[in-house]
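User:
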Amino acid sequence: MPAGPALIGDGEERVPAGPAPPRGGAYDLFEYPGYAYPATHPARLEAIARLFGLRPGAAARSRVLELGCGDGGNLLSLAQALPGARLVGIDAAPSAVERGMRLARAAGLENVELRCMDLKELPEGGELGEAGSFDYILSHGVYSWIPPRVRVAVLAGVQRYLAPMGVAYVSYNAYPGSYLRDMARDILGYHVRDIEDPQRKLAAAQELMQTIVAIEEPSPYAQVLREHMDRMLRYSTALLFHDDLAEISTPFYFHEFMEHAGHHRLAFLAEADLFESQMRDVPDSAGRLMEGLPDDVLVREQYLDFFKNRMFRQTLLCHVDAPLRRELDDVAIEVLSISSPARAEAQQAVEGETFTTPEGYTVTTSEPLVQAAMRALGEAWPRALDFPTLLERALQAAGSEARPELAQARLRVVLMQAYLAR
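Assistant: Predicted structure:
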């Protein structure tokens, strides 16, 4: 598999990610620990926007708003990585906000503020800033776990506060893959329907899942359920309670989410992981089917969900009148920074040199320029290199006789291919 580089605007923290819970109520009983989510990093969002022709605010000096920030685990990590940025988080759980502000003060972070506020009551005046005052708006693990009225308020807030060329990140559970999650949730909901106490409810749900996993029913349908519940048993108690036992948990087909966004004059930019929008190593029939679809990115994205049985999406939005270009522009890479943890394998094939990431993704190349560039990125990791520096080091190490302008174009193309094939 490919070992694509990361394209970033100003540098990016890399830590484990996962969906976050809804806020308030039992959230204070089962405290959900905050995490940093790499897909939300403004430098990453800036890079993707630039590839599609937008010119958002520079991540290093941006204004960032997170809706449903919890205890600020994500926002505080961004504040530390981007000291020149200003960050505001909103959450309905007082204990989480208080805990986050204590952490911010202890870390000496003066560029971040967490506020306790109901998402359905986002101010329309200047309390959060003037309209269009945030370059990046984030909402991770919130949209599927709030009622319709609040979902409307969240998207209205995104439309109101997002800068003209800004980027919004919204994640949500997606169909068709989440029908499996719905099935498990319905089973557990029936089992705990008469239990009010949250801790007893959680224990009863775990007991039922353990029983279902232990039963060796040979049916393929039973096997699918066993495998899913076995994964659920490895969740943290907070994740299981807030995600799978939540009163509200609403997945959406991609086209449904985009209809919601369209009502607020928000348009699809891309997925936060661009490689998720690619189709590789598929049969000819799939390629022919895709070619026969309307030339509409929303339709194609929906069919990709069908093919992949996607369960979770991390969708990037922009304003409908933003000057978006659907064709990716590899020239934009020249103003970005690049990073990759891939290292050359000890045993190399005759036909080229293979580089492997810690996750096992690989890229094999016989081009001296690309080999030199991959070695330079590996030596710099975890730091990123701007494109001119990477090109210079690759040319020097490769001893290439190619004219610099030709090497420049070739390196852009290879980096883009690797990034999309990740």
